[in-house]
Amino acid sequence: MNIYSLLSSLKAYTVKPEKLLVPMAKGEHSKKAFDLALGLASNYKSEITALTIKDEAREIVWSDKVAIVLNAYKEAKERNIRLVPKVQSAKNIKQGIVSEINSKNYDMVIFSSGPRATLSASLLGGIGDYIIKNSRATVLAITSRMNKYKYERVLVPVTESLNVRRSLYIALMISKVFDAKVNILDLRKFDRKETHGFKNFFDSIDEIKKEYPNIEFSKSEGNNMKEIILGRAYSTGADLLVFGVRPGTSGNIRINGLIKDLIKEMWTDTILIKK
């Protein structure tokens, strides 16, 4: 059985990539999120909405905002990808983005930001932090450090404290877009309280290996989770690490301190997936 078919039967793992939203602004970081959306749309026949928000309190003219989404529209059209350009105004940008996300049925939101200082209280910038905590859609938040766009080696640390089941599915989607190798690093021994243990996925290891030889499974050695992840990222030449968070029982998003440390300290790009 194809791994995508296998995981599609498990709702906790999957996400439909049919309707994608990319909040856009000037700069390379925004372009990286848009390029990933184009890759997903090309493989999965997705529709992209390119959104830019005009801050009513700070911005007067519309021309720069319109130019951003029109350029995105032209690029998507050249690749026969359906794109809806959208320019809106709001009291502030972050609230405008989240209002759009929560008022529509987007399957996935993709945005990118630059790295934050180790001592910064922010992880993804003021706008990114707000999107993660307040949006109701699946979110892919890229922290961009590398100039390269085409990822070749993706590392996914698998433990309930650092990841979610949907991360595995999305990592495989990204692998398909870039023909990248995916290393699944089994860190489940660090989970003090197991709820699902990624059991369905690991029960299918043999089947997955047969269907996808570019997927590697490895187990951890040692007692320091951070050192294990950094060491594996270095030894495999990973250029992308994937982490995941989900709302707690109260509905609030709390990001593990180790995830914050790794995203701020890594030399590679990272993606934080909010389920």
Q: Sheet with the most strands?
A: 10 strands, mixed
As for the CATH topology, it is Rossmann fold
Strand order of the largest sheet: 3-2-1-4-5-10-9-6-7-8
Strand proportion, as a percent range, falls in 15-25%
Helix content: 25-40%
Morphology = globular
Number of domains: 1
Structural class given helices, strands, pairing? alpha/beta
* CA distance, first residue to last residue: 25 Å
Question: How does the SSE layout of this entry go?
Answer:
Layout (H helix, E strand, L loop, with lengths): L2 H6 L10 E5 L4 H17 L2 E9 L7 H16 L4 E8 L2 H11 L4 E6 L11 H10 L3 E6 L9 E6 L6 H14 L2 E6 L12 H4 L2 H7 L3 E5 L5 H12 L3 E6 L11 H9 L3 E6 L1
Parallel strand pairs: 1-2, 1-4, 2-3, 4-5, 6-7, 6-9, 7-8, 9-10
Antiparallel strand pairs: 5-10
Helix pairs in contact: 2-6, 4-5
What does the model show?
The chain is α/β, with parallel strands linked by helices and 275 residues long. The protein has one domain: Rossmann fold, CATH 3.40.50. 39% of the residues lie in helices and 23% in strands. It has ten helices and ten strands. Strands 3-2-1-4-5-10-9-6-7-8 form a ten-stranded mixed beta sheet, with helices on both faces. α3 links the parallel β2 and β3. α2 packs across α6 and α4 runs parallel beside α5. The longest helix has 17 residues. It is globular and about 55 Å long. The mean pLDDT is 90.
Question: Key terms for this structure?
Answer:
globular, Rossmann fold, alpha/beta
Write a concise synopsis of the structure shown.
By secondary structure, the protein is of the alpha/beta class. It is built from 10 helices and 10 strands.
